[in-house]
Structures are given as C-alpha cells and as structure tokens.
What does this fold into?
Amino acid sequence: MTYKTAKLENWQWAKEIRLKHYKKLMSARENGTPIVAASGHGPWSVVAGIGDFAALCGEPWSGSTGYYPDLSLACAEAAEARGYGRDVCGYMKLYFGSMFLNKGPFGEFPKPDLVFQSLDCDLEPHWYNIVGKELNVPVYFVEIGTDFNHLKPREASIQYLVDGYLRGIEWLEQKTGKRYSDELLIQAVTNNWESRRLWTEVCEMQKAIPAPLDIKSMFTLFIPAEINPHEAESVAFYKALKDEVKHRVDNQIAAVPGERCRIIHDSVPPWYALHIFRYMEEYGVVAIGGSYVFTLSGSWVEGEDGHLKPMTSIPGVHIPPRNREEALRIQAWIDMSVVRPVSSMDSAIFIWKSLVKDWKCQGAVFHVNRGCILMGYGMVEGSRALRAEGFPTMVYEASHVDKRDWNESDVRDRIDSFMESLGLKRVTT
Amino acid sequence: MDDWFHRIVGSRHEHAKNWKQRTGRKVVGYFCAYVPEELICATGALPVRVIGSLRPTELAEAHIPSMYCSFCRDVLAEGLSGAYDYLDGVVMAKSCIHLEHAFECWGLNIPAAFKYYLPMPWVLDSPEARKYYLAELGRFKEKLEDWSGKPITDDALGQSIGMYNRYRQSMHRLYDLRKTDLPLVSGAEVSEIVLASMLSDKEEFMPHLERAIQELPSSPNRPKAGARLMVAGGENYDLELFRVIESLGANVVIDELCMGSRYFWTTIPSPVKGEGKGEGAAQDRLEALADRYLCRPPCPAKATPSPRYEHLLGLVKDFKAQGVLLIQQKFCSPHALDIPDLMRFLKEHGVPSYTFEFDITLAKGQLRTRTEAFLEMLELEPV
It folds into this structure.
C-alpha cells in the first residue's frame, strides 16, 4: 500500500526562524545587543527578563558547525591541539574549536557577554567554566540534574532550581546593569510553556498510521522550541504546525508514502549522515521519533494509566504565571522535563518502551554516540529491555558531529541485517 | 609494614563477610567518596567503597555503552560477578554520569535490600546548594533510619563524626611522613593504607594506622633519594601504579586522588561542631557534615574547579613535589576535561606535569616508559 504524501507547508517557516536567530546573533555586537551563552535548552525565558538579548546556544551552534565537514574537522583538531581529547563531548569540542579559531558556520565566533547556564550534565560545568576563563566573561550556574527520577521531580529539587534562579536574577541585573522585568519573564515563560506544549502535541500525533512526520524532518521542526522557545513567533509557528500535522493525520498524508514498518531512533543523530533515514525509508521504514526529539523540546509525564502523556499542568502552579515565583517554578518544571529521559535509567527505559508500544513501532535503532555520554545513558539497558519484550533493536556506534567516527558501510550493513530481522526487503533502490 | 593493610586490600570481600558474621551488623557499599559515611556508620553498619577487580569486564559490556569509563565498568562487572553478594545496601552520591550509570545498572540487575541515591550538588559554593544539600542529608538520615529500623541518635552520629575526624587527623600525620627531604614512607605503602581504610571498620583500622605511623619511619625499607612526584587524578586502586613509578627511583610524596588524599583531606572543624549536646545538636551535626562534604577538595565532576587547582598547588608546595603525574581512567570525561586546564595552571606556576591514561588493566610497560620520559623531563635520570 502506498499513502499519499505532501510537502510540509511550515517547513520554510522553521528554517526562517532559525535563520533569523543566527542573523540576530551574528549582528548582535554591532547592534549593541548583549549575547548570552548557554546550552540549547538553556534558561532563555529567565534571561528574557533583562530585555532584548541574543542567545548563543551551545549545542545548536556545534550542530551547525558539524554540518560542514571541513569546518568541523578544523574545530575538532583545534580543540584536540589544546588537549581536549577525542573522547570528550563532541559538541563541546566543536564549540571550543570554533572559539579558539574564532570562526564558525555563520562567520566569526560570537563572543558572549556572559554565561547563564542550567546544568544537566556533569560536563557542562567544564564547558562553561572554560568559556568563562578563555573569554574572560562572567559565569552563573543553576542546577537541574540533582534529582534522580525526573519523571517525578521532588519539591526540594524544584525549589533548589527556583532559589538558584532567584539569585541568578540579581546576578543578571548586576552583570548587565539592566533592571529586570518580571513582566518580560512571565511572557517568556508563558511562550516557553506553549511552544513545548504544542510540540508535545505534534509528537503525540505521530501515533497515527501513517506517521505524518518523519524524524529527519522533526530534527528541523523542533529547533525553534530549542533555541527560541520563549518568543511569540515560536508559539505561532507551533500552532500552525500542529494544525498542519492534524490535517495530515485526518487525511492520511504520510511522511513516508511506503510506510510499512515504524521504528524509533535515539540519541542525537550523526548530523552529517542523516541520509541513513532515507536509506531506511527504502525498506518502507519510517522513524517516528525518539526521546531526543520528543523530550528536548517537549514536556511529558507518566500518566496515572502508566502511559507517557503530554504534561498539561504543574501541581499547585497557575499557568500562565502571575508573578516571578510562579514563572520560575514553571521554568524549573520545564528544565526537569528536558532531562527526564537521560537522568534516570528507569525513566529512560519507560520512555523507550512507551514510544515503541504506544506509537505502534516494531523496533528501535540506538545510536551509541561516542560524542555524547549523556544521551547514551541507559541505552544498552533500554535495548535489552525492549528485546526482552520481543522488539528487535539495532545499535550502531558513531559520533553526532565527528565524522572521523563514522563508518558508512558498517552502518549500512547493520541496517540491512536489522531490516532482515524485521522481515523487510528494500522496495526502492 | 603491618601486614594487616595488605590483607584487607588483598581479600576485601572475605574481610567484609567475616566482619558481618563476627559483628552481626550490616555492610553497605558506597560508590563515591561524596557519600557521607558518617551517617551509615552511625547506624552500626560498615560502609565499604565499591571497587572492581582489575580484570577484564566482559560482564559489564552488555549493560554499559562503550564510551563510559573503565572504572564504572569494573565496578559493575564485580557486582555482576556476585562478589558483592554480602552487601545489605548500596549508596551513591551524585557525582559523575559514568558512576551513576554503573549504580543504576547495579540497581536493575543486582538485588539490594537498600538502594539510595543521595542528590549532591555540583555547584558547591552557593547558599542555595548548602540549603538543598543540608535538607538532603536529613532525608538520607531518615531513609537510613527506616532501613536500619532504629533512629540515628545524636550520640551515635556525634561519635561517628568524632571517629572519622580522628581517622582523618591521623591520616594527615601519616601523609606528613613524606614531607621530609627523604620520605619516611613510600607512596605505595601509603596508598595501600588509604585503600584499606576505605574497606574496613575505622575503629579496627585505627590501631593499625597508629602503629604504622610509629613504626614506618624506622623501617629498613625506607625510600631512597629520588625525584619527588605527585600523582593526581581520579579513582585508582591498582597499587602497581605506585610500585612501578617508585621502582624507577622516584618517590610519590603526595597524591591528589579520589582514593587518596581527597578521600580524607578535610576534617570537620575543631572544636567539632557536631559533638555538642542538647537542643539543636542534631542539626549542628548535619550542618557539620554538609560543610565537610561541600568544602572538601573537589572532584572534577563538580562545578567549581578553581579550589581544586589551588589545593593541588598547595600540596605540591607543602610536599615539595617536583612534578605532577596526571592519571586518567580511560573515557573519564570530567578528568579529561580538567587536565588541559590544570596542566596550563601548573605550568604557569612552574610545576611540570605529564599525563598517563590507563585502563582497567595497567599497561606497566607504557607506564614505565612514560614515567621515565617524565623523569628525564625533570632532568633527573632514573636512579
């Protein structure tokens, strides 16, 4: 059976939001706009209280760098020449290389004025301490990753984050010399909540057969909620995207017309080799998503029925928030939801099992990413757990940004074998 | 040297099992030196550091991705082998993602009556971190009380803190034996004592330690003159490392290791805050514990690197080390990220350093060659 398909109408909008983001970043210095550095899923809504700023999002910057093989190799080698070995975080290494060489995918490295980082990985303190030292800029940290089971965050951990943000606001005022606006904070947090809520609903619609989106497209579509979640345009974009995806579901418009098998793919993909998803499509396989693409820009909870559900409310908190404390509490819950799949093996395995079963998949592909230990957390146990329940899995080793770790023929061989185990033959060549 | 330490290290499982049988008390394995042992000890249980066996880790390969560090694989393999089946519980304090992974795999695959994860801040120096950690210590205390079936009394916790303080103070005296121009004890001997202290009952350990401090300076096998080195890095429980280095004529006069000085370095301030009586004493004790674990020399998994560098440099000066050998477990990302900056810092202060990456099994030939090269760099020919 072949389904009908159609190009995504909102595809170009996602690209434009990203382009606008980088244009603002790259012209920030001449426009007098402060540049703030943090992770892709950094606490941008909290920073927004100081007024206009440009965000230098660490992982997306490196992901874009990794798209250009010559540039990424030069950056990796520059970092390695300074002693940062091949086994450290791949994104961090490209970021360092870009900083040391003062060049990146869009021009010179945009030197930040300050770092305001929420920590969810034990390498991030190093990352931003080194940035702070190298560029002589002030650094502020709050901590997300202290709790164990992020599916059920405890009040103490939420309050720890809120306390950190409250002090961070004073720090932001002091470092920027600007008066902090709670009104801007509340608007940014509301937008953030909405962007993520809408993206979560889009992911939820991936349960439909045929899948309205494929993971390769989702890697582009989830970016606004990663780098600009606090802006009104992102909310508008996700509203439009949600409507479009609903239309596709209602009319059985497929991402992969020949869909006959569904899988999840997890960890950050090898950005330079996204064609592997097209290769799997030749077998009629659609990758409907994974915890990376679903949770980095979405917020989920374990429902009372034991299934993975969109997070629609926060205990004891009014949405939209009415004051600084409520806004920071929502931000803390959002922060926790980002790291849920990677901060507890139980929650990671629960999410993988839920995605495979509830999204009607037949198997899972895991990228054991040498460049990101965090996203590989529990992956082998997750693979074991799925196999124990009769779902075939495939594991391949590579790096998301370092092409030197890529072995095309090996990965294709593995895909071929995996497809055979699923009883699939290539339908196109 | 007292053979007791050697026996503990060589047969740690048998020792713990015998202790359990002899005392009728429980044994708790802890995964990280940030676990406040004082609280476990106050329940009457024996806290022992969970380590591997330095053998191939094929049992762990089916559970841990390849880019996780060799230490966490060794630890898990040892657990999966059944060698730790006498443990009544396991505890982890948040540190690095590698060890957390091993701890979680342990929880999934190895039965444990008590499994506890203690949230421990990465940011050590903020007011909210202290408040948070203090509350977490209180929660840990309650969980231990539930598990052990009896309250941790103020007296029991006070005595435990007091004993650990005495232990730490004596360990400082042991370390001071290497401050002299000609060290009075070798690095290999000291490292074995530290390791034994992590694997045994501190009450039973202390008389042996005191005797060692008395007897070692007059031992006929005292170190000979040689280059004075510091060894710094993460977890190391392969004592061959020190033996190989010292066989080349160098003396390891100080370390900055997880299973070395970082384990015991910071004593709870004297007069011991946690030894008071009466109203507020319990809270005082927890605050004393919080301050000790937040202020001890930080591990590179923490978010505040500067105190580690300054502390390390202070040790180099105090112990007159001529160079620093920086060791790193394969794939240990916190140390891999710390080393380049630390080397630059040491260079700025005129301290030469050299790196050595090692796996579960020690490549002795490579270590020998690299140490010789380092010693040559120090312009000191191997003796």
In short: Chain B touches chain A through 49 residues (CB under 8 Å).
